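Hmm, what's this shape?
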Amino acid sequence: MTENGVGPDLVTHNIILSAYKNGAQYSKALSYFGLMKGTGIRPDTTTLNIVIHCLVKLEKIEEAVKIFISMRDKRTESPPDVVTFTTIIHMYSSCGQIENCKAVFDTMLAEGLKPSLISYNVLLGAYASRGMSEEALSVFNEIKQKGFRPDVVSYTSLLCAYGRSRQPDKARDVYYSMKNNRLKPNLVCYNALIDAYGANGMLTEAVETLREMERDGIQPNVVSICTLLAASGRCGRKVDIDTILSASKSRGIELNTAAYNAAIGSFLYVGEYDKAVSLYKSMGTKRAKPDSVTFNVLISGCCKFGKYDEAIELFSAMIDLAVPISKEVYSSVISAYGQQGQLEILESVFADMKMAGCTPDVVTYTSILNAYIGAEKWEKAMALFDEMETINIQLDSIACSAIMRAFNKGGNPTNVLALAKQMRERKISFTDTVIYEMVSACSMLRDWKTAVDLVELIEPSFPVISVGLINQLLRLLGKSGKSDVMVKFFYKLVASGAQINIFTYSILLKNLLAVGNWRKYIEVLEWMEDGGPQPTYDMYQNIFTYAERSSGSECAAFIKQRLGSIKQNVMA
C-alpha cells in the first residue's frame, strides 16, 4: 500500500492493531501504536480500546487508567464506550479491586451507556473470583431483568462464586439449572464444579463430575487433574493421589508445573514426603520445570518434617536454577538454618532477603529470635527486637514469648513486664508460654504484686491452662509468702476444673509448711484422702517431722491427735 502511494488510514491501523491484539502480541501492538501516532492520524475509541486491552494484558495498569481518564475528558474526540468500560472492569477484577469494578460499572450506567451481556459477565466474574456469592447472584438476576439470557459464562461464574464461598450444594443447583435451560456445560464449567466439590472436601462428588464430563464428550484437561489432586490432599486420601496421577497418564494428559505442584503439595499434606521428593525429581525428565511455588512447597514441607539439611539443599538448587525466591522461601530457609544453628549463614540469607525487597514478617523474625535464643545470643536477640519495633512489625503471641525468653535469659526481666503491658494495649492474647515467662520475671524481680495481678488476669483461663504453668504459679505465690492468696488460687483452680496433679498438691503442701500453716496442710491432706490423688508417704512424713520438731509447743500434740493413727497405717 505504501509503495503504491496508498497510505494506510485509521481503519487500516485499527485492523493491524487488532491483529496484534488477537495474536497476543501486545508489546508489538503498543509499538505500532507509537508509530501510528507519528503519522498524524488521530486514534478513535476502537484504537484506544485495543491499546487499553494490551496495556492491561501487560499489567501496565497506570498507563491504562491514564488513557481511560483522558477518554472521559469532555474535549475528547474518542469517548469511552461499553467496550472501554468493560475492559477497565476486567482490569480491576484482575487486580482484586472489586469495589472499583462496581464503581466503574455504575459510572457506565450514569453516563447513559447500556451494559452488554459481556459487561454483566465481567462484573459477575469479578464477584465470583472472591467468592462473593450474594453479589454475584444479584448481578445474575439483573442480567435476566434487563432482558438478556444468561449464557454458559454467566452460569459458570455464579457456580464458581458458590464454590469459592463453600456452598457446593448451591453450585450443583446452578449446574443443573444451566442444563435445564438447554445450555451445554463446557470444560471451564465442569472444572469449576470439580473445584467447588474439591475445595469443600467432597472428593467422591468431584471424581463423579469428572466421569460425567467424559460421558458428555468433554475430555478433562490438566486443570481438572490439578483440582482433583489438591482435593485428595485436603481429604487426606493417599491412595487417590496415586490413582489420579495414573488416570492422568492413561488419558494422555501431560502434567504442567502447576499440576506437579498440586501433587507434591498433596503428598506432603498427607505425610508422604518420599513420594513428594520423587515426583519433584521426575520433573527433570519432563518439560515441566520447577518454579518458585515448587520450591516453596518442598522447602516448607522439609521444615515441617524436620529435614533441614534437605531444605537447605533445595534452596541451593533454587539459586543454581535462578528461580525467583519468594518471601515464604526465605522465611522457611531462615528457619532451617536456625534449627541447624548456622547463624552466620542465617544472617546472610536474612540480609539477602531484605536486599531482594522481600519484607520479613513476624514469622521470619521469630525464627531468627529462636535461633539466637538457642545459641544464647541474648544481645543479638534483643537488638533484633529493637529492629522489629523500629519498623513496626506487628507482634503476635509466639514472637512475644520468644522475646520475653530472651529478656529473661539475658538478665532483663523488667523488659518482660514492660512487653506484657504493650501486649495488653495491643490486645495480643496471653498464651501459656507468655505467662510462664512473666512468672519467671516476677520471680527474679520479687515483684509479688504483679504476680498476684497475673493470677487475677488469667483466672478466666484456669480450665485450659497447662498443669505445668499452674505449678509454676503456685511456686511463685509460695515464694512470695502470700499463703492466703496461694490458697485462694488453689481453691479457684479446683472449682474451675483445671488440670492439677500430685505435684500441684506437693507444691501447695510444701509452701504451707514453709510458713507454718499446719492446719491448712492437714485440711489439704484430708481433701486428698476424700477425693483427690492419694497423699504420698513423704507428705505424711513431712507433717510428722514438723510436729516432732515443734515438740513442747502447743501445736505438736494437736497435730498428732488430729492425724491419729495415719502414720502407723502408712508405715504398714
The radius of gyration is 35 Å. The CA atoms of residues 72 and 301 lie 51 Å apart. Confidence is low (pLDDT under 50) at residues 567-572. The domain at 446-571 is CATH 1.25.40 (Serine Threonine Protein Phosphatase 5, Tetratricopeptide repeat).
